Amino acid sequence: MSKFIVLLGPPGAGKGTQAQAISEELGLPHISSGEIFRENLKKQTELGKIAESYINKGELVPDDITIKMIKARLTQDDCEKGALLDGFPRTVAQAKALGSMLEEINGQVAAVPYIKVDKEELITRLTGRRTCSACGRVYHVKFNPPQEEGICDEDGSELIQREDDKVETVTHRIRVYHEQTQPLIAYYRDQDLLLEINGNQAIEKVTEDLIAALSEVEM
Question: Alpha-carbon distance 138 to 80, whole Å?
Fold first, then answer.
């Protein structure tokens, strides 16, 4: 039976970095729902065209379309032993649909690591990002500052704070995430699949704790 890992964590928790580390450690493909969407839209697949019709109207893509895209990806050869899912599911309804879909392909969710980070820490991480107005290189005022404040090391252009990284936007994103995912966290906790990881630590320590927790899971 194929074993799948669902990685959960709020914006700023470092899911992308940790997903890459877990993927390499366990030899499982990292499946990002965002990448699946972009790929389907770019290739103008049948599902991509349907999704685009909703996106163009400013509407959410229905769960059944998203599930079909995910299923098409998870039935590819590299997912034969399982995969690491990042960005999906986001709701209990999607989690139930994922469970049903995995049953169809002789798979199951084996573990759900949840990277927990304090709200204040998330705000510090996200609002401190600065982006080069010319080349797009990303800095952080605390964790990865430029040599000269407000100036890109690469080309000397001005560093800007994107709208996405302003405190009002960041606070809203965090609130929406928690409202949306609290029921999902409870759902997986009730199934004894949730692995809570302290995400307030250094990146390397979070990786170490994730790998240690997953090593206890039968994969």
Answer: 36
